[in-house]
Write a structure and sequence with these properties.
- By secondary structure, the protein is mainly alpha-helical.
- It has helices at 3-17, 22-29, 35-58, 70-80, 98-111.
- The protein is built from 5 helices and no strands.
- Helix 1 packs across helix 5 (98-111).
- The N and C termini lie far apart (37 Å).
- The relative contact order is 0.14.
Length: 127
């Protein structure tokens, strides 16, 4: 299975298993929890959601930009999934299927929205 197909499969599991964006649900729940329960929920989120995604991004087949870590990639991925959990103002328009919508979002996550101009470096590099 290609790395993009693997990430698509992971994304489909998350969108099929959860009616809402798990990242937003968990983090918005913190306001209603005691600090010790916030900590427990954070541990569960890290173990059950972030760690498997981080492991994916740490695979040799996944080539991250030099300055990014697998953990940063996993956190960005999880925070970027929210457009898949609603029908209002869907990425790519209402006529796109869920499968097309997932692929578009993953392409944006994996490849960004622009290419750098010649001679321009990443904002994360010290130039």
């Amino acid at each position: 299975m290609s790395t993009s197909a693997h990430l698509e499969a992971i994304t489909n599991v998350l969108t099929e298993a959860h009616p809402r964006d798990v990242y937003t649900v968990i983090h918005s729940s913190f306001a209603y929890l005691k600090p010790e329960n916030q900590r427990q929920l954070g541990i569960i989120f890290g173990r059950d959601y972030l760690a498997p995604i981080e492991a994916f991004f740490a695979e040799d087949a996944v080539e991250l930009r030099g300055q990014l870590t697998a953990k940063q990639a996993a956190e960005f991925y999880m925070t970027s999934l929210s457009p898949l959990f609603g029908s209002f103002h869907r990425l790519g328009g209402a006529e796109m299927t869920q499968e097309e919508n997932v692929r578009l979002l993953l392409d944006l996550i994996l490849h960004g929205i622009t290419t750098l101009n010649r001679g321009e470096s990443s904002l994360l590099t010290n130039n």
